[in-house]
Amino acid sequence: MLPPQRSGSSGRAPSIDPDDAIRATDDDAAASRLSAVNLGYLPDPFLPYLYRPPMSSSHGGNAGAGGPSRKPPLINVGTHHRTMAVDMLVQQFFHRGGGQVLSLGAGSDTRFWRLSQSPKPNMSRYVEVDFPHQTSQKAQRIARTAKLHSIFPSPSPTPSASPSSLTSKPYTVSNGGTSLHARSYSLVPLDLRDPTALSGLDGLLDPDLPTLLLAECVFCYMKPEDTDAVLKWFGRFKEAGVLVYEMIGLEDQFGQVMKRNLATRNLSLPGAVYRTSADQANRFLNPLLGSGAFYTSDAKTLWGIHTDVIPKEELQRRIAALEHLDEIEELRLVLSHYCVAWATRGQILEGIGF
Ligand SMILES: C[S@@+](CC[C@H](N)C(=O)[O-])C[C@H]1O[C@@H](n2cnc3c(N)ncnc32)[C@H](O)[C@@H]1O
After folding, report:
1. Do the interacting molecules here have an ipTM over 0.90?
2. Superfamily of domain covering 82-149+169-345
3. Which residues are CB-neighbours of 170 under 8 A, at least 6 positions away?
4. What's the whole-model pTM score?
5. Is 275 annotated among the ligand-binding residues?
6. At what angle do helices 18-38 and 132-143 cross, to 10 degrees?
7. How close is the Cα of 111 to the center of ligand 1, in Å?
8. Which of 47, 194, 218, 266 to mutate to test the pocket of ligand 1 (most atoms within 8 A of CB)?
9. C-alpha 61: how far from its chain's center?
């Protein structure tokens, strides 16, 4: 979640490569998660292995209790709600019998490891995609951290296997260190805006299995037509679901301030064009997507998740007890600008949702 910004910034964008600015959004997301984890909003034993905050982070928030990466309560609550909502929907997918997950713009996300932990879901494969810079960093971290790579099942020994291959690693790193493949997991470098790039996923996923496409805060950085090309490509999966976390309603005053502030980081949001959560959900039903169109879709703002989905007891136990939120109106305003949207195609996944 991006920090809520105050008006008044007149800074000019420093000359950063716009793609560097997009890649840096993973730091925002991971730093927010780390803050929420450190303050007890969320459990995530894998995050410290996949994300290390810079010593003097420019978006690090206040020092003090919770460490230098402590974020304001609004951000921590938003991170808690979005993580919990996406986790609940992913669990519903696995309760339907499971299948495979394709996570776009995965950044430093830890979900694969959290899912692998317990109770073991029926997950045949989990594929993560991001720019090569991100995947090479993640591949290095996985390769040097036993807590991360010990989760991968050992390769099956072949009858002719030599003693040395029996002790070989359960993963391979390739493509100049930017790809990593294990039996249940792949990390693939590609630019989702390049229509030919998705061929890099050929052979990794089984088109006959139920497949969940996960894109948390990714499509907002892409033009809608580039996202549509990805959704059309995804039309090869007949039993399929898509689950996104996105910003909405950015045409209002809050959105304008946010866009102006992001522009100072050379960051634009060409894909954040949906006014409401319903608009965001409906994009997945567009007949122009052809076989990539979904049959059912729905969405909830984070505020709707706060009021209707998060159990009251969880709100009391985790949220109210942790930090004092004076500004419920400000919380409502910020949470109303983010939504979780999902859509399904095929019978197995029909009915998933809140
Ligand atoms: C805001 S971060 C979100 C990371 C992660 N999904 C999460 O929620 O914690 C956006 C991620 O999408 C990736 N991304 C954005 N545009 C992309 C593109 N065209 N191709 C590949 N990755 C992209 C960025 O590099 C970054 O890691």
Report:
1. yes
2. Vaccinia Virus protein VP39 (3.40.50.150)
3. 149, 152, 153, 154, 155, 182, 183
4. 0.92
5. no
6. 40
7. 14
8. 218
9. 21
